[in-house]
Amino acid sequence: MKLRSDQMVREIVIVGGGTAGWMTAAALSRKLAGTRATIKLVESAEIGTVGVGEATLPQIRDFNRMLDIDEAELMARTSATIKLGIEFRDWGRTGDQYIHPFGVHGETIGPADFHHYWSKENATADAGDFGRYCLAISAARKQHFDLPPDNPTSPLQAYSYAFQFDASLYAAFLADYAKQRGVERIEGKVVTVGTDGESGFIQSVTLESGQLIPGELFIDCSGFRGLLIEHEMETGFDDWSDYLPCNRAFAIPCKIVDPVGPYTRSTARAAGWQWRIPLQHRIGNGLVYCNRYMSDQDAVDMLTTSLEGEAIAEPKQLFFKTGKRKKLWNRNCVAIGLSGGFLEPLESTSIDLIQSGILSLTALFPEKRCASSDVDEYNRLMDLEFDRVRDFLMLHYVLNEREEPFWRDMRNIARPDSLSEKIEAFKRRAIVPQYDHGLFQPASWLSVFIGQNLLPETYDPRVDAMSDDDRTGHLARIRSTVESNVGRMPEHLAFIRKYRASFAGAQAGQA
Question: What burial letters (b/e) apply to 409-428, b meaning 16+ CB within 10 Å?
């Protein structure tokens, strides 16, 4: 049966701007181009956004490609640098260092997965640092980068990349994109929400000016406030503070002193961790901590005294609670971004969770009545996303070997069965999680398991079909291939200059 056109959603209202609001507006303006749907975004210049500089995951490139955004232009407009992964310092033991890369370790050398061959070599000889078998890690350490080639047989295909950019500039970039495609921005603060007494559906929002804005689908991008999804619809919140108790952060930018590498850094501190995100024009820094173990004054002192360059703003304090709404889609309201939930930015998942919400919404784009089957499927998918990110973040904490009170407690913290099962499977049989939906595939789990000193008790018996000499030779060849390919890459900053120049040249050619 064909759906009648009068059943389709025609009036979409997005409440809140920032990264979440303008990503949503841009994507919907693209997906609904040529239809009769109207998109209005309500935001107030008086209400600030949380964004303090963002590191992203490679999936952001899929989002940008969907919008036909030119990467060179994006990097020029957002002061972006390249990101090949995240370097973790002092997370296992003080002095430890490893990188979670956007790429795989090793290559296929037999019927078992590569890490099984490395595990046996490591147990019987000297397999060397696991990171030496990963092109993305080696390139990050040497501060080199080049675009992966199109040739699928090239060993350079074994990595991807993301961006480190100014989130406010990215939101402004997407705002221009969306407004050029018909999205109407309305300035103002929402003061009241009108709902249908029978269905509970939102029918309109009214601004402080008195302007009434009707709609059929409302998207809450209002940040931690959850203006629609929580204040109006009382959806409820799953509090995950028992799993991830950090609840505060300070953020501050500083001047660049040393050349910036193509990676984000996370350094474990006494009661949390410190981030370092290099952009073209500054370094973004922040300290995430739990106020039960560290005072606000100690936190800001620790952050400001560890900056590598001169601070260029005052510290900004952020307060948060880890968790998610019980439903991210409730009746005709969808929460995207911080209004839907928050997980600390240890693995740069904030923008990816926004992207996942947007893509699931466009795939299930509703009729006016918002069928329960669509709502339930959306919430199922987003619950999976949040659960799997939560487990992966917790993995870093529970594998620590530090001795401060915070870290001892984190090592012994109650954990979901889903995480305990993953840890046990790797410890006993070197099995790593694989699933079709959700972030963080085997290469990511391997990086943290091995980087934080959890080595498996055994390996796949098929490894024994290869002689010791052949295995050792294969591993040496892979290390050599990685090193030689990284050596041929340009330096990271040289790549950025060339990429920016390509955008400037294209602009000049169009003039």
Answer: ebeeeebeeebeebbeebee
pLDDT tens per residue across span 443-462: 999 999 999 999 999 999 99
Helix (H, G, I), strand (E, B) or coil at 300: helix
User: Active-site residue among 2, 31, 83, 422?
Assistant: 83
83 as an active site residue: the answer is yes
- Go through 287-317 and write b for each residue having 16 or more CB atoms within 10 A of its CB, e for each that does not: bbbbbebbeeeebbebbbeebeeeeeeebee
pLDDT at position 508 is 47
Q: Kindly list the structural domains of the chain, giving each domain's residue range(s) and its CATH number in brackets, ordered by start.
A: 5-80+166-237+325-387 (3.50.50.60)
* Sign of the CA dihedral with 279 first, then 351, 242, and 451 last: negative
pLDDT, tens only, 318-333: 999 999 999 999 999 9
Q: 3-state DSSP: the chain helix, strand, coil percent, rounded to 5? A: 40, 20, 40
Sequence length of the chain is 511
Q: Is 88 helix (H, G, I), strand (E, B) or coil?
A: strand
Both tokens of 391, joined, read 């487990």
pTM of the full structure: 0.94
Using CA atoms in the order 443, 446, 450, 452, what is the torsion angle rounded to 10 degrees? Answer: 100
Distance CA 62, CA 2 (A): 31
Contact 57, 439 (CB under 8 A): yes
Band (237; pLDDT cuts 50, 70, 90):
very high
Query: For 85-109, what is each residue's pLDDT tens digit?
Result: 999 999 999 999 999 999 999 999 9
- Whole-angstrom Cα distance, residue 71 to residue 122? 40
